[in-house]
């Protein structure tokens, strides 16, 4: 087998589907026998929707949720998402179960084997591969154990990652907020603004995201004076009381559905790579839920990692796999920082500090440059790898003759974007590199399978071939250019 993925959440299923789509043999081991019917995540951001679109998943998903153009913060401050440079200039609210289902169908359709009810109990690796021992969940009988071997392993098994523990990997950080309650609530008098709405006082906050049907919202609440263990039951009155206090009015909770109490931490594994094992999603980083970054960051981790595993399995140098940590660890660190700053801004207690926040935030967020920088960071559209050139930037919005990039990339692999008016390049076809023509006056671009620029320049030289060789190991002699 080429790759074992541990964890059948959105991160693991993205990685498994992408690898299988590229022709790799992949098995997903998931400890729970059935998909989790509960949804912690609910916000899908613009960059993640672009990733899903390049797998032909976005349109169907968008039919079952709500598009929100803004995030309404404290004191009238509003983070406007409608100016994002994306096909998806909004936040999209839908239960994580819908995203999980779409990615599960994708992974299965591409040929990934998904094995549920198997928990990993041992992981060993050597210079040639990884050996995983798994058994039926809660079954101590060693006769029921199964062994799986593969070239590589992707640990996408969540914040309490078994793989991370078995390999003795540190997960430094700390708890930052306790006794947070998520719930699905039906309101008779919800916010009239279609955006995500936050309300707060010095002692509590409440957050509402519209599901877009029958008055149902996802709520998140926290009360400074009601700090109890995660195992403490959640009473409907607790949710109603905190929401009303945070919003400053009776929001009219008519019904409370699914609910869960949890605490949040800020942690990040030191290295995303441990030999032949790679950590992704919550197994690599956890943070405050403020900003809805968790599921989105995990899916984008997987999109970055899977094509690199495919490339190395196909003959690329092993150093390509080191770039997964080099590129995604700084992104994870940035997500921890920005979600943490948002959480601390919401939970400020001193009156003077809150007064400054309430006076400054609305003014700052009205400035287009600041607004777009913050919105792009949370939406993932302004994140990049490296600095100082077009290389490492997202190519999704480059105008093309014919299909948009995310449609072209439904066939996995690199894409060569030619300058406007330039004829197709024969050796690109021989190498199996898809081609497209720009309609603006920009340079030619070699675009990686995850949608980021690997090279920019003129097709009058062969720089793009050199870049392609560096990433894939493809021999120039195969298709002289």
Automatic annotation (TrEMBL):
Residues 2-339 form the FAD-binding domain. Signal peptide: none annotated. It comes from the Bacteria. Gene3D superfamilies: 3.30.70.2450, 3.40.30.120, FAD/NAD(P)-binding domain (3.50.50.60). SUPFAM superfamilies: FAD/NAD(P)-binding domain. Its cofactor is FAD. Keywords: FAD, Flavoprotein. This is FAD-dependent oxidoreductase.
């Amino acid at each position: 087998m080429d790759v074992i993925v541990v964890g059948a959440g959105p991160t693991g299923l993205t990685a498994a589907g992408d690898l299988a789509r590229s022709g790799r043999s992949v098995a997903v081991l998931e400890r729970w026998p059935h998909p989790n019917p509960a949804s912690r995540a609910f916000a899908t951001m613009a960059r993640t929707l672009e990733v899903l679109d390049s797998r032909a998943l976005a349109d169907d998903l968008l039919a079952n949720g709500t598009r929100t153009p803004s995030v309404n913060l404290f004191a009238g401050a509003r983070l406007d998402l409608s100016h994002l440079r994306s096909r998806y200039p909004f936040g999209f609210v839908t239960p994580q179960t819908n995203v999980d289902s779409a990615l599960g169908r994708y992974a299965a359709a591409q040929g990934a084997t998904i094995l549920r009810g198997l928990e990993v109990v041992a992981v060993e690796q050597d210079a040639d591969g990884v050996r995983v021992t798994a058994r039926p969940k809660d079954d101590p009988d060693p006769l029921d154990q199964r062994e799986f071997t593969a070239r590589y392993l992707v640990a996408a098994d969540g914040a309490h990652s078994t793989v991370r523990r078995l390999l003795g990997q540190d997960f430094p950080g700390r708890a930052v907020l306790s006794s947070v309650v998520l719930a699905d609530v039906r309101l008779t008098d919800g916010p009239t603004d279609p955006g995500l709405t936050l309300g707060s006082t010095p002692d509590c906050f409440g957050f509402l995201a519209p599901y877009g049907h029958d008055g149902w919202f996802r709520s998140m609440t926290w009360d400074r004076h009601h700090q109890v263990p995660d195992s403490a039951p959640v009473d409907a009155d607790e949710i109603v009381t905190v929401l009303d206090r945070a919003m400053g009015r009776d929001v009219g909770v008519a019904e409370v559905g699914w609910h869960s109490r949890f605490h949040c931490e800020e942690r990040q594994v030191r290295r995303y790579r441990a030999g032949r094992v790679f950590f992704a999603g919550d197994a690599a980083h956890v943070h405050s839920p403020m900003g809805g970054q968790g599921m989105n960051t995990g899916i984008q981790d997987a999109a970055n990692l899977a094509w690199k595993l495919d490339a190395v399995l196909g003959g690329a140098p092993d150093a390509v796999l080191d770039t997964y940590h080099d590129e995604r660890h700084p992104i994870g660190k940035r997500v921890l920082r920005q979600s943490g700053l948002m959480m601390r801004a919401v939970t400020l207690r001193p009156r003077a500090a809150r007064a400054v926040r309430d006076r400054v935030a609305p003014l700052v967020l009205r400035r287009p440059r600041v607004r777009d920088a913050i919105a792009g960071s949370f939406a993932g559209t302004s994140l990049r790898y490296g600095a100082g050139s077009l290389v490492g930037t997202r190519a999704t919005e480059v105008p093309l003759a014919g299909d948009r990039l995310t449609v072209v990339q439904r066939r996995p692999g690199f894409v060569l974007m030619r300058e406007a008016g330039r004829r197709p390049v024969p050796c690109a076809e021989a190498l199996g590199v898809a081609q497209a023509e720009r309609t603006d006056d920009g340079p030619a671009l070699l675009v990686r399978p995850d949608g980021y620029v690997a090279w920019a320049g003129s097709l009058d030289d062969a720089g793009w071939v050199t870049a392609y060789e560096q990433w894939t190991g493809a021999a120039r002699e195969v298709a002289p250019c």
